[in-house]
Amino acid sequence: MANQLDRDQKSGLFIVSYNVFKPGVAGGYNLQLRLSVYPPARRVSGEAVITHATQQPLVFKTAVQGNYEEISGGIELFLAGHNLLQAQAQHGQQQSHSLLGEDFHFDGHLKGGWQAENGSRARYAFLQHGHWTEVIGQDVQLSDEVRHAAKALNLR
Prior knowledge:
Layout: H1 2-9, E1 14-21, E2 30-38, E3 43-52, E4 58-71, E5 74-88, E6 95-111, E7 121-128, E8 131-142, H2 144-152
Antiparallel strand pairs: 1-2, 1-8, 2-3, 3-4, 4-5, 5-6, 6-7, 7-8
């Protein structure tokens, strides 16, 4: 009951962006999460973009949705991605979207809450060309633009 009251007291919507990567690994996977967080329902939605600059460059994008839990001063964040198929109407003026299926999973622990302090870690997996790739032990950091904006607005 107290948990439900706590959830009902929270309001608002905010935007956050993270870089998820393995420090010191040149050419490793880099995940950028651009998320909208809705605290009353503990729901998260947005976009995940994975890049990898090696012999076969990779750019993977997917729409994500999920939820989060507040656990002992941190956030446990769970996301799933669904590839969208765009279909254009005959006259080219309307577009419809339909879900093709899950193509991304993310499980992260954000130390210190949404600020993602040092020690924030994640693992994720994505589906490309019929093959799942799992990436573990990644650091999570606020993106530079969010970190600089928070500092400029004196939010930290």
